[in-house]
Write a structure and sequence with these properties.
The protein is of the alpha/beta class. The chain contains 16 helices and 17 strands. The protein binds guanine and zinc ion (ZN).
Length: 443
C-alpha cells in the first residue's frame, strides 16, 4: 500500500481563529457562536471550538498564531460533495432529451478527451482548484476509464491538498469503443490503482470501485467488482442507481432476472457500508428498506435532477427513515460545483414540504461525512477531528449580508438562499490553507 509522505495538512504553528462560527452537531441541530474560537494544532487537528471567553479561560494561547476575523466573516466546516464528475467539467449545460441520449451525445465524447494526458492534467487542475474555490473540502469523484487519467487525477489532488474518494470508471459494454475495456483488463487496472492510492497521505486520498451503472457493466465485470469488494471491504464503491425511467427500463431488459434495479447490485455483492449510490430517485419502499439496512449512502443531486428532468428524490422519506445520504453537485448534469446552490435546489425540489435549514446544512457537511463513514474525522468542529473549514466573507457577494440579529436559523437561511462561491474567501484542509489569500485575514 502507499508510501506517501507529503507534508500537507501540517501548519507550522498552532492556529487560533476568533470570530463567528457555525457548524452542525446533529441531524437537525446546528450551533452558532457569534464570538467563537477555533483552535487548530500543529497536526491540523481541532483542539477546541467554543465561545472565545471559554477558549481564553481554558487554553494557554501562548505560541498560537491568533487570527481575529472581522464582523463580515464566518467560519463553517468544508462542504462534502458526494457525487461529482471530473471529466464533465467542460460539458456542463448541454441539453438533451434523456439521460441516455445526453450520455451518448455529449458526455461520452467529453470523457474520450481524457485519453490525452495533457488535457487530463489541465482539466484535473481546473477541477480540483474549482472544488477548493467552491468550499468543497471532500468529494466523491467520478473519473474516466483511462488508467493514466486516473493516475493524473490522484497526483493532482495529492499536490493541491483535496480530500477525495475516487477511482477508475468501470465500463465493459454499451458505450463507445474508446471508453469500454475488456473486464479482466479493467479489473486488473483498477486493482493496481487502488493498491497505489487507497489511504494515501494518511487517508486524505481514498479509492473507490466505480462501475458506471448497471447498463455499462456485464455480469462478469460486476462479479469481478463484487470479488474485489470482498477482498478489500474498506475500499468504497460508487455508482449510479435508478435515476431515470428509460435507464430503469433498459436495466430490466439487460437483467431480466432482476426484480428491481437494486437487486442487480445486491446479486453481485456491491451493497454495504461505504457504498455510494447516486440519485436513487425512483426507488420503491422495498428498495429503500434494503439500501438502508445495508447501510449504503444515497447521493442526492437536485441540480442534476432538475436539468435532466429525472424526477424527485424522496427526501422527506429519506429523512423520516434516517437513511444515510448527502448532497452531490453531479457536475456536469448539475450546473455547478457549489454546495450552497445544491442546498437551495434540494429545498426547491420538494414542492410541498419545507425541509428544515439545519437538515440541509447537515447534509452538506456532517451528514455527508457520516454517509462516507468519515464523521469521526471531518464534518464539524468536534475536538480531535481534522480541521477542514472555510472562512466566508459576506462582502464577497453584492447580494449577501448577515442578518442584523443573527441566530442559527436566520444565518442558515441567508446561506442557503443567497450563498454562492463568491463567499468562500479561504479553504483549509487539515489546518492547511488550500485556497484564498491570507491578506484578507486580519491578524
Ligand atoms: N448514469 C450513468 N452515467 C452517468 C453520468 O455520467 N451522469 C449521470 N447524471 N448519470 C449517469
Ligand atoms: Zn453522476
Amino acid at each position: 500500500m502507499p508510501s506517501h509522505s507529503m507534508e500537507t495538512g501540517k501548519p507550522p504553528v498552532p492556529q487560533a481563529f476568533r470570530g463567528r462560527i457555525l457548524h452542525a452537531v446533529g441531524r437537525e441541530e446546528c450551533v452558532y457562536l457569534p464570538d467563537g474560537g477555533l483552535l487548530v494544532n500543529q497536526k491540523g487537528l481541532i483542539e477546541a471550538c467554543a465561545d472565545w471567553p471559554a477558549i481564553e479561560a481554558r487554553h494557554v494561547l501562548k505560541g498560537f498564531e491568533i487570527t481575529h476575523l472581522p464582523e463580515h466573516c464566518l467560519i463553517i466546516p468544508g462542504f462534502v460533495d458526494l457525487h461529482v464528475h471530473l471529466p464533465q467539467l467542460d460539458a456542463v449545460g448541454c441539453q438533451a432529451e434523456s439521460l441516455l441520449s445526453w450520455l451518448e451525445t455529449y458526455i461520452y465524447p467529453a470523457e474520450m478527451h481524457l485519453a490525452d494526458s495533457g488535457y487530463a492534467r489541465d482539466i484535473s487542475h481546473r477541477f480540483f482548484t474549482g472544488l477548493l474555490a467552491n468550499g468543497t473540502t471532500t468529494a466523491a469523484v467520478f473519473l474516466t476509464s483511462h488508467p493514466e487519467a486516473v493516475q493524473i487525477a490522484f497526483e493532482t489532488a495529492e499536490a493541491l491538498g483535496n480530500r477525495v474518494i475516487m477511482g477508475q470508471n468501470l465500463m465493459d459494454r454499451n458505450g463507445p469503443e474508446a471508453l469500454i475495456r475488456p473486464p479482466r483488463q479493467i479489473l486488473s487496472e483498477t486493482e493496481q490503482l487502488c493498491r497505489q492510492w487507497h489511504r494515501a497521505d494518511s487517508g486524505r486520498l481514498q479509492y473507490a470501485w466505480m462501475p458506471r451503472f448497471a447498463i455499462s457493466c456485464s455480469d462478469e465485470l460486476l462479479a469481478g467488482i463484487g470479488w474485489l469488494r470482498r477482498q478489500a471491504p474498506d475500499v468504497y464503491l460508487h455508482t449510479h442507481l435508478s435515476e431515470q425511467s428509460g435507464e430503469i427500463l433498459e436495466v430490466s431488459r439487460l437483467f431480466s432476472w432482476a426484480a428491481d434495479y437494486t437487486s442487480v447490485y445486491e446479486r453481485f455483492h456491491l451493497l454495504g457500508e461505504k457504498t455510494i449510490l447516486a440519485h436513487g430517485i425512483h426507488l420503491s419502499d422495498s428498495e429503500l428498506t434494503r439500501i438502508q439496512s445495508a447501510e449504503c449512502a444515497l447521493a442526492h443531486c437536485p441540480g442534476s435532477n432538475f436539468f435532466l428532468k429525472s424526477g424527485r428524490f424522496r427526501l422527506t422519506e429519506a429523512l423520516r427513515r434516517g437513511i444515510l445520504y448527502g448532497l452531490g453537485s453531479d457536475v456536469g448534469a448539475g450546473p455547478e460545483m457549489n454546495l450552497f446552490q445544491v442546498m437551495k435546489d434540494a429545498q426547491y425540489m420538494q414542492l410541498d414540504t419545507l425541509i428544515p435549514l439545519e437538515a440541509l446544512f447537515y447534509a452538506a457537511t456532517l451528514g455527508g461525512a457520516k454517509a462516507l463513514f468519515m464523521d469521526d474525522r471531518i464534518g464539524n468542529f468536534e475536538p480531535g477531528k481534522e480541521a477542514d473549514f472555510l472562512i466566508l466573507n459576506a462582502q464577497g457577494s453584492p447580494n449577501f449580508s448577515f442578518p442584523a440579529h443573527p441566530d442559527v436559523d436566520s444565518m442558515l437561511s441567508r446561506l442557503v438562499y443567497l450563498g454562492d462561491d463568491r463567499l468562500v474567501a479561504n479553504t483549509f484542509i487539515r489546518g492547511r490553507q488550500v485556497h484564498g489569500l491570507s491578506s484578507c485575514l486580519t491578524r
